[in-house]
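Input/output pair, single chain:
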Amino acid sequence: MPTKPIREPSQRLGLSEVSKLRTKIVDDHYHHALRIYKDRESGATRLQASVYNGELKGTPVWTAFITYQVRSIRWMQRIGPRTIQLADLNRYIFTDEYVAAVGPNGRPELTFLEAEDANDFWEAIVKVARLDVLE
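Output:
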């Protein structure tokens, strides 16, 4: 049975963003869909975490723009098989109930459901950073 392609939220809004990665994270004790978007016109890169299931499925929880800092080799650090810590991530949070995941040192953390998802995120960010440098 053929399935309909899932339209990205950015497509529904008419934005010129392309999804570079779709994966799942555990965030604030909930499963969230994490996406990396790259804007075709401006070249900006954005992360977005959305509710993964339930009544609010697809609702954005937070978004963050990744700028020049992504080019630093110190921006990302693997601190576990499923966890990546970021040197900086200015999240725009859309709900008062959300508590951003940070490590003991206060740095933002992303915990993925599977180690492979963390690997995919790492590779996607490296690729996006490489493209930013080349453009």
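Helices lie at 9-12, 115-134. The chain has a mean pLDDT of 84.
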